[in-house]
């Protein structure tokens, strides 16, 4: 049976309607473990061995985080720097994550137009998330195209939150049903 690890990296989850609602929906899957990094490591002292155990136990890893100033929250970067060690996640014997799936579910406060390139030829979100995509390639993860809710400040009023959550859940169900 496939198991999902949701690595929640939101420093203010208590005041986040969007990410909190998404994580609550994701938690309804029996195979899902929700791991709130800011709750577990308020001092940023990541327990590397515990995090490795979680990664080894799960098949699908989902990073859930808001985009802050065109980047990930700092604890998610700290987690990557500490946990994805040579000999574990990469290097000659670092194949422990090979074949696992990685999916990012992000949100932005600003509308999608803020994330358009100056030449209006597309979104810069792929560029912003390139470090995670490259990390996934280097560590053997199967990287899935990210799911982003733009303009989260108005998503509820504009009735965009429920369709976004349904889209995320459909993606999870598809991943769970893949051979």
From TrEMBL:
GO terms for molecular function: electron transfer activity; FMN binding; NAD(P)H dehydrogenase (quinone) activity. Pfam families: Flavodoxin_2. It comes from the Bacteria. Residues 2-160 form the Flavodoxin-like fold domain. The keyword Oxidoreductase applies. Keywords: Oxidoreductase. PANTHER family: GLUTATHIONE-REGULATED POTASSIUM-EFFLUX SYSTEM ANCILLARY PROTEIN KEFG. This is Flavodoxin family protein. It comes from Aliivibrio fischeri (Vibrio fischeri).
């Amino acid at each position: 049976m496939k198991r999902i690890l949701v690595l929640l990296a939101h420093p203010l989850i208590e005041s986040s309607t969007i990410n909190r609602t998404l994580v609550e929906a994701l938690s309804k899957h029996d195979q899902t473990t929700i791991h709130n990094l800011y709750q577990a490591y308020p001092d940023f002292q990541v327990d590397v061995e515990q995090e490795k155990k979680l990664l080894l136990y799960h098949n699908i890893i989902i990073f859930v985080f808001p985009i802050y100033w065109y980047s990930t929250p700092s604890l998610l970067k700290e987690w990557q720097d500490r946990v994805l060690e040579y000999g574990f996640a990469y290097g000659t014997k670092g194949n422990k994550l090979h074949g696992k799936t990685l999916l990012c579910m992000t949100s932005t406060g600003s509308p999608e137009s803020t994330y358009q390139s100056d030449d209006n030829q597309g979104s810069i979100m792929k560029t912003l998330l390139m470090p995670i995509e490259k990390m996934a390639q280097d560590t053997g993860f199967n990287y899935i195209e990210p799911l982003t809710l733009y303009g989260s400040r108005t998503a509820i009023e504009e009735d965009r939150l429920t369709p976004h959550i349904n889209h995320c859940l459909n993606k999870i169900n598809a991943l769970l049903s893949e051979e």
